[in-house]
TrEMBL record:
<keyword id="KW-0479">Metal-binding</keyword>
<keyword id="KW-0411">Iron-sulfur</keyword>
<dbReference type="InterPro" id="IPR017941">
    <property type="entry name" value="Rieske_2Fe-2S"/>
</dbReference>
<keyword id="KW-0001">2Fe-2S</keyword>
<dbReference type="InterPro" id="IPR057330">
    <property type="entry name" value="SCP2_Rv3818"/>
</dbReference>
<keyword id="KW-0408">Iron</keyword>
<dbReference type="Pfam" id="PF25451">
    <property type="entry name" value="SCP2_Rv3818"/>
</dbReference>
<protein>
    <submittedName>
        <fullName>Rieske 2Fe-2S domain-containing protein</fullName>
    </submittedName>
</protein>
<feature type="domain" description="Rieske">
    <location>
        <begin position="461"/>
        <end position="515"/>
    </location>
</feature>
<dbReference type="InterPro" id="IPR036866">
    <property type="entry name" value="RibonucZ/Hydroxyglut_hydro"/>
</dbReference>
<dbReference type="InterPro" id="IPR036922">
    <property type="entry name" value="Rieske_2Fe-2S_sf"/>
</dbReference>
<dbReference type="Pfam" id="PF00355">
    <property type="entry name" value="Rieske"/>
</dbReference>
Amino acid sequence: MRVTGTGHASMRIDTAAGSILCDPWVNPAYFASWFPFPDNSLLDWESLGQVDYLYVSHLHRDHFDAKHLRDFVSKDATVLLPEFPTSEMEDEFRALGFTKFLKAPNEQVVELPGGLKIMIQALTSPTDGPIGDSSLWVEYDGVRLLNQNDARPTDLSVFAELGHVHAHLLQFSGAIWYPMVYELPQAAKTAFGKQKRDRQFDRTWRYIDDLKASHVFPIAGPPCFLDDALWQFNDIHGDEGNIFPDQSVFLSEYAKVGGTNGIVLLPGSVAEVTTEGASTTHPVPVQEFFANKVAHLEEMRERKRPIIEAEKASWRHPEVDVLGEMKRRIEPLLDESIYLAKGVGGPVRFDLVGYDGESVESIVVDFPGKEVRPYAEEKVRYRFRTDRSLIEHLLFIDEVDWVNSLFLSCRFSAARIGQYNEFVYAFFKCLSEERLQYAEGWYDEHERTTDAEDITLGDWVVQRRCPHLKADLTRFGIVEGDQLTCQLHGWRFDLPSGRCLTSVGHKVRAHRVDAETPAPAGEAVI
Ligand code: FES
């Protein structure tokens, strides 16, 4: 099995029974904030795109690059579709001209002509990607590969049960706006960033240890930030709180925990993977490439500047009545929302900075009041500050997912009182009837599910499944003192009270091993 690195989370898998192109991403994403690192735009995409199969793990724009798919990927390719709850992905592919689809039944091995086998695991909670993320398992001639990508299943047993995996490709770096955009003192930001960076690596080690593959390939990040306004997010400034470590940092951190089987794929690197081992060739020596990272980024920044400027010029739509349009689109959804609205629980304020860089229009999405209105000087728990032009553009293009556009762009700042609230982001990725209904239904079901099984961790008896997204705490739970941390997303819980320290709601059921009467059962998820 041949695996060609094509940048970020992308790869091309070649076997004698067919080829699969995965997640090809070349054009900037999220308001021209993210670019693939290392640069992959100079690869021979005309030939890379001539494949038998195409697999895109999810709809985040650094995985689903519509322009690139339209221009460079053969429309004769069969699209391998994860079993997602909505038809959005298939609809998007059809709009690009793809007509051949294989809807892979979730977690079932499918044998393709020639003996190529695949299995796709779809994750479908409202917090998994843009309503859905997935991983692809491939087997040909006894060689097995798992492209876990940036999916975060609670465990990898469904893949491990299919036999020893030879190539495990997974995310290790950051892909979020936290904590950089928060209006916090720099020291706090650094401390939070460092915690996050450590947690990302811990989670990666956990997955690697779960699967024990012959070779581990760090993929799916980091992106690079080429706009001058975002340049500081690149991990080139010696900031230990930077959440975007690169593949060379992965190798050195992995070595510290005893990892010796890591293989970095640069764009154009080719790994021949067999049951016996892997041999890799690179377009340039890997160490040399990372030693020259700053020069690579600077050169790329100059080359891509016109693209960024052209994108920026397309965002202003002064004719858009932002308040009126937000009312028109968001209020009907607020009316229908039960779980998400209750989960957010208060007003969310948007401060929109005008073209002059100074004037500010403040709009409140009032979840309890179910309306969108001008800010009325009340106290709000969540506040976002961004350019009015970005919101104009989102309304102009009728964007239904503000996470997959505005928030991932990092072109905003945020402040909040109290804990992280996942419902805020879940709502703003569900600005369509279909998505909202799905998310509401999911939370409804989730709330009804009682999770009676308990386990013992240290001195504590706790519910087996994490109150966040049901990770198995026998694997992901760590108790230190009176605190439980679930390593899947790093959420922390105060065990004596059961209170979640990371996000609103999500109480855990727990009591001391020697306590006679267990604490009351965990609260509902919201
Ligand atoms: S499942 Fe997300 S922190 Fe536990």
